[in-house]
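Annotators were shown the component list below and the corresponding predicted structure, then asked to write short factual statements about the assembly.
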Amino acid sequence: GENVEQHPSTLSVQEGDSAVIKCTYSDSASNYFPWYKQELGKGPQLIIDIRSNVGEKKDQRIAVTLNKTAKHFSLHITETQPEDSAVYFCAAPHGGGATNKLIFGTGTLLAVQP
Amino acid sequence: SAVISQKPSRDICQRGTSLTIQCQVDSQVTMMFWYRQQPGQSLTLIATANQGSEATYESGFVIDKFPISRPNLTFSTLTVSNMSPEDSSIYLCSAAPGQETQYFGPGTRLLVL
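Structure shown to annotators:
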């Protein structure tokens, strides 16, 4: 089955700086990689996802890159703001391939210092 | 996308009792899932709620402890049975309208005394 590792576990940046969170996965058949943001007391919110037929996807200040050969994908947040402070989770299909089931990384607590 | 609500949002229960959590989606969805998130931890999939048939449980989770219902394409329930303090956690419902993307509810925060 799939195994997802996420680093770092905590990340502190100054407002306006960039933040990068990295995940690796084990199953080469995995083809869908979402990122979720979880604020305190709330459920995870999907912020961006990428499929294995593209190498990069952007949405305003957020981007995700995928390296299928190395089996890793990264979340990039530019011009960070205090409201970006949250826990971020990456995920990959549980069992690889086309499946709805997800296995999650261990999470990254991002703190943006004003 | 899908908008998901859960009830109750939180509860404090006595050990040995059971709690049923409801999950409602604003549109018909293909798949619904239940996750557990222990304090400060990641999400662990409990089971896939199958419409009209028995749920599919992940390793370490059993139907007697976590019975699940899914009577239609917009609603599901998870019961946490015979609770112990180790069941204190956040329980999350998610829905997948299509093949991949999952949307999550706000979660139910459970404390067992």
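Statements collected:
1. The longest strand of chain A covers residues 86-93.
2. Chain A is about 0% helix and 55% strand.
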